[in-house]
């Protein structure tokens, strides 16, 4: 466990990050007008997204449009006047 204040943390940043990556608990304390605050640093590992290469034409035949697709809708007739 690492417990340090904000001023020391500025000079030990690399060590603090390495410790957090190893899974150690890291606490940094700081003071302001509201009193003392303790920050706990945690590491969340995010796996890179695996993407497949897209191939053109793989959805061919799965999508269709009706012949009257571009015709005005009867429901909207009164708004088109």
- Portion in helices: 10-25%
Q: What radius of gyration results from the CA coordinates?
A: 29 Å
The sequence of SSEs as H and E is EHHEE
Name of the CATH class of the domain at 2-41:
Alpha Beta
Strand content: 15-25%
Largest sheet: 3 strands, mixed
Q: Report, as a whole number of angstroms, the end-to-end distance.
A: 73 Å
| CATH fold node name of the domain at 2-41 | YefM-like fold
What is the spatial order of strands in the main beta sheet?
1-2-3
Number-wise, the strands total 3
Poorly predicted sequence stretches spanning 5 or more consecutive residues? none
Number of helices: 2
Per CATH, the architecture of the domain at 2-41 is 3-Layer(aba) Sandwich
* Rounded mean pLDDT score: 87
Silhouette: elongated
Class computed from helices, strands and strand pairing: alpha+beta
What secondary-structure arrangement, pairings included, does this model have?
Blueprint: E1 2-5, H1 6-11, H2 13-21, E2 26-32, E3 35-41
Quick summary:
The chain has 81 residues and is α+β, with helices and mostly antiparallel strands.
Question: What features would you highlight for this structure?
Answer:
81 residues, alpha+beta, YefM-like fold, three-stranded mixed sheet, 2 helices
Protein described:
The protein is built from two helices and three strands, in the order βααββ. It is of the alpha+beta class. The chain has a domain at 2-41: YefM-like fold (3-Layer(aba) Sandwich). A three-stranded mixed β-sheet has the order 1-2-3. A hairpin with a 2-residue loop joins β2 (26-32) and β3 (35-41). The model has no long low-confidence stretch (mean pLDDT 87).
């Amino acid at each position: 466990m690492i417990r340090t204040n904000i001023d020391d943390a500025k000079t030990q940043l690399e060590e603090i990050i390495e410790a957090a990556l190893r899974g150690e608990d890291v606490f940094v304390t700081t003071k302001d007008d509201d009193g003392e605050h303790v920050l706990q640093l945690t590491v969340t590992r995010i796996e890179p997204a695996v993407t497949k290469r897209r191939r053109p034409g793989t959805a061919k035949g799965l999508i269709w449009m009706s012949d009257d697709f571009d015709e005005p809708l009867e429901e909207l007739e009164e708004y088109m006047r």
